[in-house]
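Sequence, please.
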C-alpha cells in the first residue's frame, strides 16, 4: 500500500474526523527536501500537526519552530535553562514547585541538540516521502481501536506514556519514533492553548513501519467487533 491507500483505509475504517498526519524528522547532514512551502511565520510543532490534519503541508527548518520546549525535545533547538530547571512550567502554574517541573523535564524523551535540522509535516495522503510517525487526532472511541489493532496478533497490553505538556512533540512523535510502539496522549496545556484541538479529542502516534500491520488488523476486525461495538 502507498501512503494514500493507507490514509484512505484509516479514514474509512475508523471514520476519522480529519486526515492522518505524516511526520518526518530531517537529521543533521541530510538535505531538506522541497516538498512543501516553509511557513511564513514560526510554527509550533503542535500547530503544524493540527493544520496538517486539515490538509496543509509544511517543511519547517529549525529556525522556524516557535516553541522552544517542543523544538528542544525534537533536537531542533537548545533547551533554555529556565525550561530545564523547571522555572518556565512552574511559572505557568503547572507544577507546585520548580523541582516537580524539573523532574518532568528530566524524564521526557528528547533527541540530542542539533541532531535534527527540520521537520516535514503533511497529510499522509499527500506525503511523497516515508514518514517516521503518523499522528491521528480524534475522539477517544475512535483511537481506542488502534489498541486492539496493535495487540490483534500477539496479544499483550499497550502502555501509554504522557505528561502535562508536550503531547504532540514527545507523546505522539518522539515516543513512537524511539520505542517503535504506538503511544496515546490526551493532549497538553500547550497544544490546547495554541491550537484548535477540541475538548473531546486526543492524539495517537503510530510508528510508520508498524502502520501497514495496524491497517491490516483493522480490516480484519472491521466487519466483526468494530461494527458490533459501534452498533452498526
Amino acid at each position: 500500500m502507498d501512503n494514500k491507500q493507507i490514509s484512505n483505509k484509516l479514514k474509512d475504517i475508523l471514520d476519522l474526523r480529519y486526515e492522518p498526519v505524516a511526520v518526518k524528522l530531517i537529521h543533521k547532514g541530510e538535505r531538506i527536501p522541497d516538498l512543501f512551502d516553509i511557513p511564513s511565520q514560526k510554527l509550533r510543532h503542535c500547530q503544524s500537526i493540527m493544520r496538517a490534519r486539515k490538509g496543509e503541508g509544511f517543511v519547517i527548518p529549525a529556525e522556524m519552530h516557535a516553541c522552544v520546549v517542543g523544538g528542544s525535545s525534537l533536537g531542533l533547538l537548545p533547551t533554555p535553562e529556565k525550561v530545564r530547571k523547571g522555572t518556565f512550567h512552574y511559572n505557568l502554574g503547572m507544577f507546585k514547585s520548580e523541582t516537580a517541573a524539573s523532574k518532568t523535564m528530566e524524564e521526557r524523551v528528547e533527541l540530542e541538540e542539533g541532531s535534527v535540522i527540520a521537520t516535514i509535516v503533511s497529510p499522509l495522503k499527500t506525503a511523497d516521502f516515508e514518514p517516521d510517525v503518523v499522528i491521528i487526532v480524534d475522539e477517544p472511541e475512535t483511537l481506542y481501536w488502534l489498541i486492539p489493532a496493535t495487540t490483534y496478533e500477539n496479544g499483550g497490553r499497550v502502555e501509554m506514556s504522557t505528561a502535562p505538556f508536550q503531547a504532540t512533540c514527545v507523546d505522539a512523535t518522539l515516543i513512537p519514533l524511539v520505542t517503535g510502539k504506538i503511544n496515546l496522549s490526551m493532549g497538553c496545556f500547550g497544544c490546547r492553548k495554541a491550537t484548535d484541538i477540541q475538548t473531546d479529542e486526543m492524539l495517537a502516534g503510530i510508528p510508520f513501519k508498524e502502520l501497514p500491520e495496524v491497517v491490516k488488523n483493522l480490516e480484519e476486525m472491521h466487519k466483526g467487533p468494530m461494527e458490533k461495538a459501534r452498533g452498526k
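The beta strands are 21-27, 58-61, 116-123, 133-138, 183-185, 202-207.
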